[in-house]
Amino acid sequence: MARGDAPRDSYHLVGISFFILGLGTLLPWNFFITAIPYSQARLAGASNSTARILSTNHTGPEDAFNFNNWVTLLSQLPLLLFTFLNSFLYQCVPETVRILGSLLAILLLFALTAALVKVDMSPGPFFSITMASVCFINSFSAVLQGSLFGQLGTMPSTYSTPFLSGQGLAGIFAALAMLLSMASGVDAETSALGYFITPCVGILMSIMCYLSLPHLKFARYYLANKPSQAQAQELETKAELLQSDENGIPSSPQKVALTLDLDLEKEPESEPDEPQKPGKPSVFTVFQKIWLTALCLVLVFTVTLSVFPAITAMVTSSTSPGKWSQFFNPICCFLLFNIMDWLGRSLTSYFLWPDEDSRLLPLLVCLRFLFVPLFMLCHVPQRSRLPILFPQDAYFITFMLLFAVSNGYLVSLTMCLAPRQVLPHEREVAGALMTFFLALGLSCGASLSFLFKALL
Question: Transmembrane residues, as ranges (predicted)?
Answer without folding.
Answer: 12-33, 70-90, 97-117, 129-150, 162-186, 192-213, 290-315, 327-348, 360-382, 394-417, 429-452
